[in-house]
Amino acid sequence: MSTEEPTLVRRLRTPTLTLYGVGVIVGAGIFVLVGEVAREAGDGVGLAFLLAALAALPTGLSYASLASRHPRSAGEAVFLERAFGRPWLAFVVGYLVLASGVSSTAAVSHGFVRYLGTLVALPSWSVPVVIVLFVAGLSAIAARGMGESMVVNVACTIASVVALVVIVVASLPRWESVAILDATPPEGGAAGAALLSAVALAFYAFIGFEDVCNVAEEVERPQRTIPRAILLTLVVVSALYFTVGVSVVAVVEPAALAASEAPLVRVAEGLWPGSSTWWLSAVALLAVTNTALVNLIMGSRIVYGMARQGWLPRGLAAVSPRRRTPVRASWLVFGLATLAALTGFLRVLAEATNVILLTVFFAVNVSLVAIRWRRVPPDEADVPVFDVPTLVPLAGAAITAYLVAQFSAGAYLRAGLLAASGALLYLVAHRLPAPK
């Protein structure tokens, strides 16, 4: 009888991995963010999303190249370790990515309650109960198996995309009224500066493609599949966001969109006056659910991958022999996300998350440059990898450096404190005596 420890199973192929990526990007954000972009860019919402896609592309290509070279869970942490050979730096990066995933899960759990409240009346006392049940239910699905998780992911992704396509198709006759290249803000001002601001804002609507790398050990032929999935994800989402961006300003004036807390509901009301828009709230509910599920999967794989590398206790790398999922890691992430959602710690995480993610993007781009310069071999030397010119990660680093410089001092302080806490945790863990 074999005494080998159970491992994750490679069952994800290009179509399912692409749907996984599309699902995490097309989350609840587009249901709100499109109004904020309209505030900045007026009729140029579609243009802003298209330019944001081009801005995200170099970093996406860097992730694709690195994941084909080093297809491991806890992707960003592994990339940093391979590039610079500093375990403490890899630990801190992995810790920060985990914090961002926990923050996102906690935040969307509150979003789930808000959207659910538009469909059914919820007493105030039930809010924390609904949050715990929501996160626990999705954690149970994630811990049960990747197959079950992908069924939920695919269903939610298809529902979200179909709803957006319905809005696009219904608005097509009105497209001729839109000045797509005119990014003049509704309240007036310089179009150039407004477009730059809108592109920076729209960039966040593309965050999520990086999560594809953290399920690398469950992907068939990851050296080929992951780059394909990342590129297909960005192409699909870019086309969807561009058409949605043109559609919303074809139906509703940009100023009205900017003033609405639910801009896509406002668009649906403009397309079908007098009809109920409950279905759009239901779709937003599914999008929120999908975002939370993917973040829980991503967080558990980061914990699993870091434990496999010895940066976290080895017990967290345990895989269920029956389900082939990192069960302990999954329930640890559930506990962290629930704690963040039910306490004031969520506010600290949320205000630091964007700084953290953009800093990690910058570090990943620099890592690819360092790996190429140092000629670090891929994990499997006999398997061809997806390669890109050095100019690609340099462009990605420049773009993310610009974006990360746009935050308030408070956001930097919170992100810095979170990074410092990770470094302290690493120092303490590695000064403790090893178990006998």
Query: What's the shape?
Result: globular
Based on DSSP secondary structure assignment, what is the total number of beta strands? 0
What is the helix tally?
16
Using the CA coordinates, give the radius of gyration: 21 Å
Query: H/E element string?
Result: HHHHHHHHHHHHHHHH
Largest sheet: none
Helix content: over 70%
What would you say this structure looks like, in words?
By secondary structure, the protein is an all-alpha fold. The chain contains 16 helices and no strands. It has helices spanning 14-25, 29-41, 45-69, 75-84, 87-117, 127-144, 146-171, 191-202, 222-251, 254-259, 263-271, 278-308, 327-342, 345-374, 391-404, 409-431. Helix 14 (345-374) runs antiparallel to helix 15. The mean pLDDT is 87.
Characteristics:
single chain; 436 residues; mainly alpha; 70% helix; globular
Topology (elements, then pairings):
Layout: H1 14-25, H2 29-41, H3 45-69, H4 75-84, H5 87-117, H6 127-144, H7 146-171, H8 191-202, H9 222-251, H10 254-259, H11 263-271, H12 278-308, H13 327-342, H14 345-374, H15 391-404, H16 409-431
Brief characterization of the structure:
This protein has 436 residues and is mostly helical. It has helices spanning 14-25, 29-41, 45-69, 75-84, 87-117, 127-144, 146-171, 191-202, 222-251, 254-259, 263-271, 278-308, 327-342, 345-374, 391-404, 409-431.
